[in-house]
């Protein structure tokens, strides 16, 4: 298959719009309250107003690979009507609609059918065990640039922070399989000043899986001739005793956080922020989905429908509908994320410790943190990485505010940033 190349968008960040500012050009009215005394028809009228531009776009969009017929439009409207029923606790009506959606949606259908199927799963399905995600993560990494984007941008920021340090300590807030560290080890091993002693503290949900990941990383480090130590912590970062993480004097400390919506990886936001401040890292690398977990059920539903539609479209251009890896990714990863965004949290999400809609905005208003702009070389090299994926013209990359944003066409999907802390680390976390 011929590589179609990749176009970097040299413009303002507005050219890639986060999901909070959808490209659908919605009318200027806010989300209605979903209080118990609201009339059902008021919500239905709101849904009709909000979805009218979406339906019109579906009818006129020329780049779509699927024909838009009455069944497609009916499915989209039925999904949104079901969301309205759930938001007003009309579960009987919602159940009836879910049965109808079950008949209309298919995991192997063309693009819109997949959206309906995965949104349906998000509305009604149980949790998937973490171990079933492992193979899907590798398939996701092979079929899209999203994980590679996160790994590459974070590694570049760490390499710059680790320069001339002979001991480095990486704290991975949700290490999973540690996919990115092999590439970092390779680069560290070829440094002019020689490889440093590398310690990784990996946090995760399962000690068994953490030990497996640690063993794999130890083998890789040995192959590269890198002295290495691994500390597993089977707990959420925001729930640990900070003294569990033992830092050595003179270490360059990096905290890495690749965010996702599969589950809550870190626990309470305030505790997470407090722990980061106490550890005072040389660099904090942050990769965020441009998807909000805040707001009412209807708000989350409309935003996630827009966000994941772009994800599905990007896969549709790379993998055929019959590809088993595509089904694995959508079934084991994406619908679990949709379910988590829609079903978990509810009112608890809307308060969320008074945090902003993303961690970038929270760190920016915190005087203890300072943005470390990602270099122009990082953007240029990320562009080369994106050329690996066909069709390259579908992906858009923007980086004019010190961050890098990766999107599919006009929709921003992931944003990478790096931060440093302006206060000195206290001695409570040191040992030795």
TrEMBL record:
Superkingdom field: Eukaryota
Organism: Gossypium darwinii (Darwin's cotton)
Region annotated VHIID, chain positions: 137-202
Keyword Transcription regulation: yes
Protein family membership: Belongs to the GRAS family.
Motif VHIID per record, residues: 168-172
InterPro entries: TF_GRAS
Region listing for SAW, in residue ranges: 343-420
Stretch list, region Leucine repeat II (LRII): 212-244
Name listed for the protein in its UniProt record: Uncharacterized protein
Keyword entries, A-Z: Transcription, Transcription regulation
